[in-house]
Amino acid sequence: MMDEVVEEEVDEVMEEEVEEEVGGLLLYHWSQSFASQKVRLVICEKRLACEEREVCLPLNEHNEPWFMRLNPAGEVPVLVHGKVVVCQADAIVTYLEETFTGDAVPRLLPEAGSPYLARVQHYRELLDSLPVDTYTHGCILHPHLASHGSLPAFATAHIRNQIINTDAELKKLAREHPEMRDLYLGKLRRFKSKLLEQDDLAHVERVLEDLDRVLDQVETELEQRSQESPDTEAGGELWWLCGPAYSLADACLVATLHRLSFLGLSRRRWGPSAQRRPRLAAYYERSARREAFARVLRPADNVLRSALMPAALKAARRHGPRLILRGAAALLAGAAAAALAVLVARVARRRLAAAAVVAVVVVGNVAGRAG
Ligand SMILES: N[C@@H](CCC(=O)N[C@@H](CS)C(=O)NCC(=O)O)C(=O)O
What we know:
Layout: E1 5-7, H1 12-19, E2 25-29, H2 34-45, E3 50-54, H3 65-70, E4 78-81, E5 84-87, H4 89-99, H5 117-128, H6 132-141, H7 153-176, H8 181-199, H9 201-228, H10 248-263, H11 278-287, H12 291-296, H13 302-370
Parallel strand pairs: 2-3
Antiparallel strand pairs: 1-5, 2-4, 4-5
Helix pairs in contact: 2-4, 2-10, 5-10, 6-8, 6-9, 7-8, 7-13, 9-11
Bound molecules: glutathione.
């Protein structure tokens, strides 16, 4: 794995973009990317001002050379803070926690020595160990695994096609950018081995069983919290996964639960229809009322963005230049035609005038001769 925090001169391609951001935070992300969502939840919970730029995964923008130069793995999210570039969601979150420590910035990691620290770290690691891409792509490749996803069928089909086309896309990029050939071919190898797993139904089912075991552990932990919480009697259950304060572990858990719900994997796992894990159901409901959830995970256009926007952008990108060229050609042709018409008219006018003069002279001569 590459260095996660790169503290060096960012290369020339980025120079312009970074310069205007010195002192500020800039996050390259994709709204439907799980790793990006986790980081954005943390940024929002910490109330940090951060400019965001979308890197459209369905349009393969993450594989474009400018982005690969920023993160050679070609993955979102990437955080740029002045001249510091941080890749990997977990490293970004740790960087933010260690860098922004003012009194006005909520802490999401308990202080060293706090009895809650080990618990938060345990759940961060446990939740991060779940291979989200396996069950996300697993549900897209084996739709029967999910019961009620938010992705419409055409979007699922679109993503499936994109997964299938990745192989050809990466090979094409490797041919077109020989200086980055090894990066693209390395990515292709990683992609193929992941795809083999995602395509293997038994493997995806095993991953879902692991997920269930983690959710059971979370349910037990939440049960413990509700017994510790002084407000349980009043129906408050104000504590979070690891203690009284919302933590990085909560951001991981909330993003995971949202992803399961988005994919259609939640109804069998918690809530009234599942009739199991009531603590988890209550926890998710309460989490969904947080501002960060509304800002990051609930934008009504999320599905549209992931499914329709890329197609529209692609069409604009593919046909846009042609349309602009056609428009420009039409304008040029029109201008040329107009100029030609004026010229012809002028010449014609001169010719007409000349012809008229000749005619007058001739007529005059004839008349003179006749007179
Ligand atoms: N380990 C990385 C994983 C990031 C990751 O897998 N990002 C996905 C989106 S959630 C991505 O960019 N996928 C595009 C690709 O791999 O081509 C992290 O935690 O940041």
